[in-house]
């Protein structure tokens, strides 16, 4: 298996804590390290891409994260994850920023970004449309309220959304 730049290939055993999934176990392991380093653990994902598995740790901090933050955090949690041995197949460890158009997943993500513009993609179209942009005005019981225009409000249960992401209106200029 080739090595992806910036990733560390891993092979661990099957010491997953009883009754908990991989993401929950890894989150419990690595969140205290993020807190200690002044970082916010934004999200943890364990995903299959092609033939490979990826353990992705998304970190954030006020003012944004740097490549050095990602590298330092990766080094700090690498041995901790290896010693706990929560994953029973080969995987690559990636540590990165959630980005400008970060996906809102956790309840606290939605609460933090109330009043912000978001992009929403629905799993199934509503009136022939799947993609919407509007202001996140409320969030409760895993349902986001999106103000699409002055007169139209949309209730989006998260189990009906492919994603909800922050809207990035940054214009890089150049091509029209």
UniProtKB/TrEMBL annotation:
Q: What does this protein do?
A: Required for maturation of 30S ribosomal subunits.
Enumerate the subcellular locations listed in this protein's record, separating them with semicolons: Cytoplasm
Going by the entry's taxonomy, the superkingdom of the source organism is recorded as: Bacteria
Example of a GO biological process term: translation
Which segments constitute the Ribosome maturation factor RimP N-terminal domain? Answer: 29-101
Keywords of this entry: Cytoplasm, Ribosome biogenesis
Q: This chain belongs to which protein, by name?
A: Ribosome maturation factor RimP
Report the residue ranges that make up the Ribosome maturation factor RimP C-terminal domain in this protein.
104-160
Q: Matching InterPro entries, A to Z?
A: Ribosome_maturation_RimP, RimP_C, RimP_C_sf, RimP_N, RimP_N_sf
The residues the entry assigns to the signal sequence are none
Q: Which family does it belong to?
A: Belongs to the RimP family.
Which Pfam family is one of those matched by this entry?
DUF150_C
What Gene Ontology cellular component terms go with this record? cytosol
